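Lab meeting tomorrow. Look over both lines:
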Amino acid sequence: MRIFLSNQAHLRNFSRFIKSIDFSNPDSLEVETHKKWITVHPAILAFTAALAIKTGKENSSIELPLPDNGKHLDSMGLFNFLKTESPFRYNKKESSGRYIPLQVVKTADDQSKFIAEMVPLLHLPEKESRIIKYIIGELVRNVLEHSLSDKGAVVAANYYPKKNKISIGICDTGIGIWKSMNEYWRPKDDISAIRLSLMPGITGTTHKEGGTRDNAGAGLFFTKSIARITRSYFTIFSGKAEYTLLKGDKRNNIFKLKIDPFDDPHRYTIIEGDFKGTLVAIDMSLDNTPEFQAILKLISSVYDDAIRDRKRTKYKEPKFL
C-alpha cells in the first residue's frame, strides 16, 4: 500500500486523499509526503498508523527527506509505528491541552485514559466537557464492540487555539461497517451501510429500531449533529465508501437535526480500493453559541438516561454470596 500526505490533508479534501491511496500490495506500507510542507488531520495519521499496525512495523516506512514541519509527525508519534527512524532532534513540548499523540485503544482502561487526556483539549466548563467526553467515549466503545479487531483502534486529536477547534480521529482495521450491519440490516453496499450507521436507533447489534439498553445506536448521529450545528466537517470511511458532512450555506441560520444523513449537506465518494476497517473523523468548533448549547442540552438528557439505565441494570443483576 502507498499513502501520500499532502499539504492540504484536511477533511474537506478527504475524498482526494482516499482516491490517491494505492491499496495494492497489502503486506507493506509506504508513506510519501509533500516535499515542502505537510498539513495533516489527526484522523489521517490514525488511519496511517492503523494500516502500519496491520502490515507490521517492519513492513512500514516513510520516504525521506521530510520538510521541516514534518516534525509534527514525530510529535504525534507516527514514527513509533514505522521502521523508519525519525530524522528530527528537538525539545518536545508538553502535549497536554494541545494535542493527543497517536495511541492504541484496546481495553476499557485504554479508553478511559484517552478520554481523560481529552479534557484539557476541550477548553470548556466541566458540564460541557462531560457531554463531549460521553460522545467520544461512545464512539471509541462502538469501535471496540463492533470492529472485532484484535488490534484495537488508533486514536489521536489536535486543538487549534486560533480557530477554537478540536479535530479527532478514530480508526480500526476490523470488519468494517457493512459487515457489522449486515447480519440484521442487509445494506446493499458500503455507502448504504454508512448511511444506516448514522441514523439514530440503528445499530449493528440488533434488528430492533432503537437499539438495546446498552447501545442505542446514537453515538455517530450525535457526533454528526455537533459537527452540523458548529458548521464543521465530519467524515466516515469504510470499505469502498466515504461520507463527509459539509459545512453548508452560511446564510442559512436555521439548523434542524436530520434523521437521514443524506438530507444534510454532504458528499460521498466511492473508490476502487477497499479499506478493511472504519475511520471516523470530526472537526468540532468549541465556540459557545446558542446552537452549541442546545445540542449539548439534548445530548445531556440522553446521557443522563443512559447512566440511570446502566445503574438500574447493574442493581438488578443477581448477587451470589
